[in-house]
Amino acid sequence: MVTTGLHTAVVTPFTSTGDIDVPAFKRLLDVQLNGGVDGVVVCGSTGEGATLNSQEKILLWETAVQHVAGRVPIIAGTGSNDTRATIELSRAAKNAGVQGLLLVTPYYNKPSHNGLLAHFKAINDAVDLPQIIYNVPGRSAQNVVAETQLAIAESCPNVVATKEASANLEQMCEIIRNAPSHFSLLAGDDSLALPAIACGATGTIAVISNYLPRVFGTLVHAALADNMLRAREIQMYLMPYYNANFIETNPLPVKYILHKLGHMALEYRLPLITPLTSTMERLDAVIATIDDAWTPAD
């Protein structure tokens, strides 16, 4: 299943020459597998997908599929603001062996309701894989309202979920309340995973689980099991980490944290650059407290 539980939007590690660091990428996948996540998203926003070329994306998808070897689903971020290019890339992702697609709503173009329907219908008809709408107004400059997302779901049987990163819980509830039977909602903001699941979301696609997969996964599954007391205690424990991940633009903080934990080099792809010194100092204080073996008291 690509619509249940915790799916990590994994970062993309680079070498000092700007190439994909494949050995580091495999180590990051192992962190996720050892942490018990339910799936991994490759080449999403956190993976700097916007500045990866097609060959690099295919390399990452093929590496993930081969390394994970069916233990969890791999979801490929293939969305763009060009429908034809998205279809071409989605077909390449399917050929690489991924189990699902994450499709960011077209940015810059700002299509109408009918344009969005036509965009997702074209991808639905062209690629037979489970597909997830990615509504992220902060990056796409357009909020896809509940009415439009539900219309897409009704007309596109391959569209099985939305990653809702609008931070609008009322909109999430409207989608959950009126969703067709094949369609569910995944929280797209880490700090809202708990309230979203309490309202009926089936899981989350997250940033924080890049380095706290076990702890955050415990929260997600406690909430899905309706153990809200346990989930709420973990939520309070994680608040400093939620905040830390967005001191600067994602994935600057999370890549710095992973670097300090010894998982990868501190390399970004322009126009992203190393965080400010003041940011790194704040992150260092948070890093000193990270413990993925932490559990709430019984």
Number of domains: 1
What is the strand content? 5-15%
Look at the helices and sheets and give the structural class.
Answer: alpha/beta
CATH level-4 homologous superfamily: Aldolase class I
Large-scale geometry: globular
CATH topology: TIM Barrel
Helix content: 40-55%
Question: What is the strand tally?
Answer: 8
Instruction: Note the total helix count.
Output: 12
Give a brief rundown of this model:
With 298 residues, the chain is α/β, with parallel strands linked by helices. It contains 12 helices and 8 strands. It is globular and about 50 Å long.
Keywords:
single chain; 298 residues; alpha/beta; TIM Barrel; 8-stranded parallel beta barrel; 12 helices; 8 strands
Structure description:
- With 298 residues, the protein is of the alpha/beta class.
- It has a single domain (5-287), classed as Aldolase class I (TIM Barrel).
- Helix content is 45%, strand content 12%.
- The protein has helices at residues 22-34, 54-68, 83-96, 113-126, 137-140, 146-155, 169-178, 193-198, 213-224, 228-244, 252-260, 277-287; strands spanning 5-9, 39-42, 74-77, 100-104, 131-135, 159-164, 184-187, 203-206.
- Helix 1 (22-34) packs across helix 2 (54-68).
- It starts with a strand and ends in an 11-residue tail after the last helix.
- The mean pLDDT is 97.
